[in-house]
TrEMBL record:
Protein name: Pantothenate synthetase
Keyword vocabulary terms for this entry: ATP-binding, Cytoplasm, Ligase, Nucleotide-binding, Pantothenate biosynthesis
Pathway the protein acts in: Cofactor biosynthesis; (R)-pantothenate biosynthesis; (R)-pantothenate from (R)-pantoate and beta-alanine: step 1/1
Coiled coil: none
Amino acid sequence: MRVVRTVSELRDALRRARREDSTIGFVPTMGALHAGHEALMEQARRECDVVVLSIFVNPTQFNDPTDLERYPRTEEADVAAAERAGVDLVFAPFAQEMYPRGATIEVRLAGPLVDTLEGAHRGSDHFHGVTTVVAKLFNIVQPDVAYFGQKDAQQVLVVTALVRELNFPVRIQAVQTVREPDGLAMSSRNVHVQGRDRERALALKAGLDSAQATYDGGERDADAVIAASVAAMASYEVDPEYLAIVDRVTLEPLRTVEPGALVVVAAPVGPVRLIDNATIH
Ligand code: AMP
């Protein structure tokens, strides 16, 4: 496995794979790798000839400077995890390689996909940062398949729209959320959730489970299902920033809960903000 820092090194390293028409699988990350990222790398390994992992804490998608500053950076361990997962090439650029002085490009989607939920609460600049860096990474790596976690359900939809609208010849593959044994969705930010907050963090999964249980009990009215979920979270002393039941493709709020509806939640827990989601079945 090789670790490269520049676009030209990456292109050189992939030249043969491209000549031989090998399929290239790509896993973009911000590092601080955990079992969720491992699931992405492993699926890429099973499905593609060559696996590229990127590690880049993308400054343009952070709306909160403190969040950016304390975002965990564990490159040595990440490289070891990538090697174990069978990654062929790690692209870990410095910020000036991605955003050289004078760079002005920004790739923006508009509309509810970027304006609602995470876009409404973090600001749509968050997704403009995501689409800009993902567009650049897709041009740099030119993968056949790119793997994204369903944990960031809105991000999967945003990246899918990006690929469709800019005609990238890339297939977006969503990968199921990996959880801790007690149900907490794995996240790089979980390292900052300690002590009593670690128990409180279970509120998000409890809220999602409650939505399914309320639905299973026969309730179909979205507001009633949401109210029960918010109450379930309150028993963990967590107040969601949002808890919504939305169409899984358009993210429009649903008035009636139906199978396939997406339940999305974000909540502050201690020093961090956590997100999670589940599909009603
Ligand atoms: P990040 O490093 O947080 O930007 O995440 C990189 C990729 O890993 C994104 O596509 C995330 O959705 C995905 N990911 C993060 N956490 C999980 C998880 N618990 N399960 C599955 N995928 C995840």
